[in-house]
Design goal:
Oligomer: single chain
Number of helices: 6
Number of domains: 2
Number of strands: 17
Shape: elongated
Distance between the termini: 96 Å
Amino acid sequence: MNRAGVKRAGAASLVVGLFALFGLLRAKPHLSASPQLTIEPKQLAADGYDSATLRIAGRFSAAPRITLDPPHAASVQELTLTEQGWQTQLRAGVTPATVTVRVDAPEMLPARATFVTALDAGDASLDGTPDFLRLEDPADERAFRAWFTFLAEMQFFQPAAARPAEISDCAALIRYAYREALRPHDGVWATAAHLPLAPALPSVAKYQYPYTPLGANLFRVTGGQFQPADLAGSAFAQFADAQTLQLRNTHFVTRDLAHAQSGDLLFFRQDQDHMPFHSMIYLGASQIEARSAARYVVYHTGEAEMRRPSVEDLLHFPEAEWRPLPDNPRFLGVYRWNILRKRS
C-alpha cells in the first residue's frame, strides 16, 4: 500500500474510533446528585428489636440498594414505595455500633447516613443472662426450639463417625445443638454442617451467633447478675458442663414431664457416678419420623452412644434412678433456657 493509502486507512480508523468513543459516552448515564436520606430516630437500643425509619427521597427507575456497615449491627426490613420516595425500617441488632447506611439508586451517586446502636445492658430476670440474648419474639422462640431439637435428634440418626467430634457426652450434645440453633441457616452453614437433610425452618432473627457482644462465649459460667464488665471478663465461655448449664444457663420449670416443651432439658444427679450431673433434651414429637405419635428425649451416654427413648419408655426405665418422675430424688426436674425466660 502506498503512502496515500496508509493515510486514508489511518484516517478511517480514527473516525471509527471517535464514533465508538462517542457511543460509549452516550451509553454511559450521567450520574446526578445523591438521593436525600433521613433516619429517625438516630439512636437505637441494641436489643434486636428497636427500629428506625429510613426515608429515601425521590423516584427512581428501580428500587435502591441498601447496604449496612458493619453488616451484623442491624438489618434492613422490607422496602416500600411511598408518594415521597422509598421507605424501610432499620432493625437494630444486639451489637453496639455506629452503623453506616449506603444507598445506591439508579443513575445517582451513592448516599450515606449513620445511626448509632447502644448496648442493652439489662438483666430483667437477674439470672446472669443479658437481655440482649433473650428471645422475646414468639417467632424467634419457635425457631430456636425447632432448630435446637432438630439438630440434637439428627445426631441420633448419624453414624458415630459422622457426628461432630466435639459431641462426646451429654453436655457436649447440648452445647452443639444450642450454638448451631442460633446460627444463620444459609447455604454456607448447610455445607459446613454436613447434615444429610435440613428442614425448611426460619432462623432466629434477633441475632445470629457469634454476632453478639459476647462473641463466641455463649454460656454463663459464674454466678451473679449480668454487668457490662462481664463482656470482657470470664463470666461467659464457650464451654459449660452439665452442672453449669443447669445452674447458670437454665431455670427450673417443673418436675412433671407432662408440662415440658420441646427444647427443655431434663437434669439428673447420680451420686455414685464420677460425673454426677447428667442431662437429656426433651424433643416432644420427632421432626424426623413424622409418622410417630410418640414423645421423645435424646441424649449422649458419654460412651460414644446416642439414645432416643420415648417418654413412655423412659418413665418405665429398668433403673428407677433414671425415671423422670416427681418422686425420684435423682431427677432434678425440667429446666428451660434462660434466653426463653419470660419477663415477670
